[in-house]
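User: I'm curious whether this sequence folds into something compact or stays loose and floppy. Could you predict its structure so I can see for myself?
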Amino acid sequence: MSALFEFLNQNSGALSILFSAVVTIATVIYAILTWKLVAETRLLREAQTEPRVEITAQPFETAFNLLRLQIRNTGMGAARQLRFRIRVANGGEGALAMLNELTSPKFFEKGLEYVGPGQERYSAFTNMAENFESKIDAVFEVAMRYESATGRRFEEVLLIDMSEWKDAEQLGTPSMYRIANSIEKIQRDLGHFSSGFRRLKADVYTQDDRDKEKEMRRRRHDDDLQSQS
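Assistant: Here's the prediction. I'll summarize afterward.
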């Protein structure tokens, strides 16, 4: 033990320097970890307030040949002052006519002042069965500019290629369409009953029917007793 104390006394300066170095390194590591935590927290907060606007071509569920543009905010924050600039990248006059047809709503020219999280807007539609060959080759370039609630600006450029829908098919009748038709039919039938055009056929079970059934059970029971005796 005395040797240990003597070693510490002889090397106290070096040990102090070594201890200070360890503390300094630990402090630097702690500062780096704190900085990373702050950066991740900032990114998480921005992700919770930032918008993300997407625009895609989508057919109607109930009419696959009718196609329109869907504008949707898939982010967690609101998009403000959304502006569009759409041009034909391929397809010539046929694509230009199709673009004019789709972008007839005024908001493509004026823009949208507010698009909330999950909110959707739709363009006008075009019938792909008409002038199919010219429409299916159309490619549109869409430039969008918008801001988040915190004032951060976003600019995106994307392509909408109609050839992605070439040879696409729809099998069966869409579920929502069948449900809507069934509800409409039920409403028509109820309307006929309430207006008196039709009468509801129903089998009524009266007290006389119950008495007759009871008497038949009693007679059957008496016959069983007689056969056993």
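Summary: The longest strand covers residues 79-90. The two ends are 114 Å apart (CA to CA).
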